[in-house]
Specification:
alpha/beta; TIM Barrel; 11 helices; globular
Length: 320
């Protein structure tokens, strides 16, 4: 694995600061049943990092003290953490809106047969990764058999009311480009997704989120191996749009890792760039129970151009 941080550390990205905290993104571990080419987490079946019950209790204490509105649960495949369901139930009991970033195929893993029903029962928003509506493209990026498994999972979610405007069960899909290119316009691609998935498979959903690939971890290492890293970084920089700064997800979100340490975003977490808070080298979520992060400096490097290029990119899709 090639290190990407040395190639992005010297940056001219604009200084930015936080607004009011609205979302706590919780990475409960890096274990996943898939190994995707574009994965910025370098997640996979052999990863062993998993959030403990003790750290989960810190997370719930922070949700209660901060009254954060959204709890965005990610991984890896977050559902493979033994305490995932406890986190969902606890966060919902505290009044938070819970989001599950689901790879869909996890629903066919042993012990996860009732996952879709659990998510529906607790009114969890599902943001599901489906990097294309064409089988060949998905399986080239994510592995053989993934597309069919994903369609079966989406069908099961639809049957429970997800994506149909029923019971407030939101189902959103996520698109990633196949390689070192900017994603297409989100609005038009959503139209294509809707038409193809409905006509071919009877699948419906609420929104499509279009994300740019980040030049870090597995994807960044692949670019370095192919001699394309600098070219892709230049593409991101040349497509920079200052107006996207206003809506960057890191301005209203913090990311906590499986150990309980805090970062400005999941990307910074993967680069081991901790939250800048007071004079601490690292900050635990439990250190922030009574803190106000408004106006706190955000740690930036050249990978941040991935969020500001073109139509912009965030956990909620395009910014423009």
């Amino acid at each position: 694995m090639h290190a990407t941080l040395p190639r992005i550390a010297a940056t001219d990205f604009p200084a930015i600061r936080r607004t009011k905290l609205e979302t706590l993104q919780v990475n409960v571990g890096y274990r996943c049943n898939q190994t995707c080419v574009h994965c910025h987490v370098n997640a996979g079946p052999t990863r062993t990092e998993q959030m403990s019950r003790e750290t989960l209790e810190e997370v719930l204490a922070f949700i209660e003290s901060s009254r954060v509105r959204n709890v965005d649960v990610t991984g890896g495949a977050p559902e493979l953490n033994a305490h995932f369901r406890e986190l969902v139930v606890g966060a919902r009991a505290l009044g938070a809106h819970v989001i599950d970033r689901c790879n869909l195929t996890v629903m066919e893993q042993p012990g996860q047969e009732d996952l879709a029903g659990f998510l529906a029962d607790h009114h969890v928003e599902v943001i599901a990764s489906l990097p294309c509506y064409l089988e060949d493209n998905v399986e080239r990026q994510r592995g053989k058999g993934v597309f069919g498994s994903s369609i079966r999972a989406l069908t099961a979610l639809n049957a429970l009311g997800y994506g149909r405007g029923e019971r407030g069960l939101a189902l959103n899909l996520v698109y990633n480009p196949q390689g070192p290119v900017l994603p297409p316009a989100q609005a038009q691609l959503e139209v294509d997704y809707r038409r193809h998935l409905r006509e071919r498979y009877g699948v419906v959903f609420d929104h499509l989120y279009v994300l740019a690939n980040m030049p870090i971890q597995r994807f960044g290492s692949t670019l370095i191996s192919k001699g394309l890293f600098e070219e892709y970084l230049a593409l991101l920089k040349n497509a920079y749009r200052r107006e996207n700064l206003e809506n960057l997800m890191c301005r209203s979100l913090v990311s906590v890792d499986w150990r309980g340490y805090v970062y400005d975003c999941d990307f910074n977490q993967m680069l081991d760039l901790p939250l800048a808070w007071q004079d601490r080298s690292r900050t635990r979520l439990s250190d922030l129970l009574d803190a106000d992060l408004t106006h706190n400096r955000i740690v930036v490097k050249d990978h941040c151009y991935g969020c500001t290029a073109g139509q912009g990119s965030s956990c909620g899709g395009a910014l423009a």
